[in-house]
Amino acid sequence: MAVYTEVSDEELVEFMTAYDLGEVVAVKGIAEGIENSNFLLTMSSGAYILTLYEKRVDPRDLPFFVGLLDHLAAGGVACPLPVRARDGEALRTLCGRPAAIVTFLPGLWPRRVTPDHCAGVGRALAQMHLAGADFPGGRENALSVDAWRPLLKSAGSGVDSVQVGLGGKLNRDLDAIEAAWPEDLPRGIIHADLFPDNVFFRGTELTGLIDFYFACRDFLVYDLAICLNAWCFEADYSFNVTKARRLVMEYARTRPLGADEVQALPLLARGAAMRFLVTRLYDWLNTPPGALVTPKDPLEYVAKLRFHEQVKSAAEYGLDVD
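Predicted structure:
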C-alpha cells in the first residue's frame, strides 16, 4: 500500500477544520501508487482524495500541479479538481508533509486492458496535450534522459543482484539512447505517468485521468511512448500490436503527428522503457524498511526495453507510415 506517512484520526479531524466539507466519516489508505501517501477521504459532503506528498515530489512544484489541474479541467479534460480551504489555499501541511485534497472521480482503472481502453487513452492523451498548449506554467522533466544515468549509478553493484550483467548492459544501452536523443520535437505539457491505474473507466468509457504529479514540459510524443510501454504489453511481456494501433491511431486522429515525431517514436519508446526501468531499480534497491508499499519488478522493463531495441519504425507500433 502506498502509505508512507500515517495520519491519526485526531490529526485528520483538526486538518479538516480548515475546509467546508462537513464532518469526517471515514478514511482509508489507497493501495495504488508508490510516490505519495494517498487516502480515500469520505466526508459528510461526499468523497475526496487526500494526498501527502513524499519522495520525488518537490514542494516548490506543487503550485504548478494545482494550476495545471484547474487549467485542464477548464479545457474539458476529465481530471480531479483541487479543493480549496476557506482561506482559498489548496496546499496545506499535514503530519509535516505538504498536503492537498482533490475531488473524487467515478470509475475504475482497468485490471484487464482491452484495445478499446487503449483507444480511449490515446484520444484522452491527445486532448490533454491540446488543452495544455496554452498553460503558462513551466516545469521541466526532472526524470528525462539526463537523469537516467545518475539513477542507474546510484544503484551501484546492486543492479547485478537483480540480473547478472544487467549494469553493464544498461550502461551500453544508455550510451546509444543518449547519443541519439532528439532535441527539437514539439514540446508541451505531458502527463509522464499515464499508467492504467491512473485512468478511470466505466466499461470502456474513459471517465478521468488522475495523478498528475510527474506532469511537466517535454516532447509530446514521449508521452505517447510512455503509454505504449504502459498499455500495450501483455502479462508475459509480449507486445500487443492491436492495442498499440488503437492507441497511436486515436491519438493521431485527435492531434496529428509530425513526420519527425513518427520517426522518433521507436527511440522514445526505448527511452521511456529505460526511464521506468531505472526508477524501478532505484525503488527496488532503496525502499525503506517498514514502508507500506511493494516495489514494482524492474525486470518487466528489461523485457520491454529489449523489445523496443528491435523495432525499426513506428509502423511496428501500428501507426500508418507513408
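Summary: DSSP finds ten helices and ten strands in the chain.
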